[in-house]
């Protein structure tokens, strides 16, 4: 079973489809319930069992309950793909970047993935398998002039 955090219309949806074709059950996690329901319906038409979990991933404190709800409905989590994106502060030229812009991104892009790892790690360590895919963007590796808001926080999460 794969839990896709940030399951929207882009990469998260593609990851859900790919793993679904490989026989994985899929937990779709994002804020927008309607968008999640649409994606779950599309996946069902393709033969993939998908369940919807609406959550604000900018709230790390909610992760333990979210992981418990996913496990209760779908069983053990084999793979996590974490790739939600916030474009509100992402397209910030370096000359305009300030601490406040970075502060707003830290929960979503750094703290919540840490909480997700902490929630699944005991089971994964015991089993000796599983995977965490952090798919946040290339600006974590290669600085880009107009993505200064996202890059530093993504780079911190990558480390």
Automatic annotation (TrEMBL):
List, alphabetically, the InterPro entries matched: NAD(P)-bd_dom_sf, SDR_fam
Q: Which domain of life is it from?
A: Bacteria
Q: Which residues cross the membrane?
A: none
Pfam families listed in its UniProt record: adh_short
Instruction: Return the protein name.
Output: Short chain dehydrogenase
Write down the species.
Answer: Actinoalloteichus hymeniacidonis
Organism classification: Bacteria, Bacillati, Actinomycetota, Actinomycetes, Pseudonocardiales
């Amino acid at each position: 079973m794969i839990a896709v955090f940030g399951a929207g219309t882009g990469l998260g949806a593609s990851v859900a489809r790919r793993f679904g074709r490989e026989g994985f059950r899929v937990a779709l996690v994002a804020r927008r319930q309607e968008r999640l329901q649409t994606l779950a319906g599309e996946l069902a038409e393709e033969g993939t069992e998908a369940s919807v979990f609406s959550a604000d991933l900018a709230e790390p404190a909610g992760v333990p309950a979210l992981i418990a709800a996913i496990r209760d409905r779908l069983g053990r989590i084999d793979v996590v793909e974490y790739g939600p994106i916030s474009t509100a502060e992402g397209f910030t030229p370096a000359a305009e970047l300030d601490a406040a812009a970075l502060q707003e991104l830290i929960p979503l892009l750094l703290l919540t993935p840490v909480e997700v790892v902490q929630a699944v790690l005991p089971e994964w360590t015991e089993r000796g398998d599983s995977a965490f895919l952090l798919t946040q963007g290339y600006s974590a590796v290669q600085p880009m002039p107009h993505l200064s808001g996202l890059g530093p926080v993504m780079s911190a999460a990558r480390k």
